[in-house]
Design brief:
By secondary structure, the chain is of the alpha+beta class. It has helices at residues 3-20, 32-35, 49-66, 98-104, 106-109, 130-136, and strands at 24-30, 40-46, 74-76, 83-87, 91-97, 114-115. It has one domain (3-112): Beta Polymerase, domain 2 (2-Layer Sandwich), CATH 3.30.460. A six-stranded mixed β-sheet has the order 3-4-5-2-1-6. InterPro entries: Iojap/RsfS/C7orf30 (IPR004394), NT_sf (IPR043519).
Length: 137
């Protein structure tokens, strides 16, 4: 298994943890060719600060338990709980309050990057409405 596949598997663990905590619009992008600082970025959002923190804690816990004791290199935004960033080196997890996510619109920055299939039970794709998907077929 190469490093990118390992990162994708780790991000899937994080996405499943976030989804289990009712995170909204969980998406990930392969940004390695564009950024160089990491391979993958995952974004998830929640409607209040308490939920942002709960999702971030669950992501950390599940990555530790299911991914060989993995711990983030750094954590930012925990005090404000508007945007929690968990830096794992080869991937970065963003847990954002809905308002912060709408304001910063990170998906716009990575729209040219390949999305990662997170294999979630409850997949949601930010910005794609069912009517849009119907017209693409």
């Amino acid at each position: 298994m190469n490093a990118l596949e390992q990162s994708i598997n780790s991000v899937r663990v994080a996405a499943t943890a976030a989804d289990g905590m009712k995170a909204e619009d969980v998406v990930a992008y392969n940004v390695g060719d564009k950024l160089g600082i990491c391979d993958l970025m995952m974004i998830a959002s929640a409607s209040n600060e308490r939920q942002v923190l709960a999702i971030a804690e669950e992501v950390e816990k599940q990555l530790f338990l299911k991914d060989g004791g993995r711990k983030p290199r750094s954590r930012e935004g925990v005090e404000e709980a508007q945007w929690v960033l968990l830096d794992y080196g080869d991937f970065i997890i963003h847990i954002m309050h809905d308002e912060a996510r709408d304001f910063y619109n990170l998906e716009r920055l990575w729209r040219d990057c390949e999305p990662v299939d997170l294999e979630l039970e409850h997949p949601e794709s930010r910005g794609i409405k069912s009517s849009d998907a119907d017209t693409e077929e």
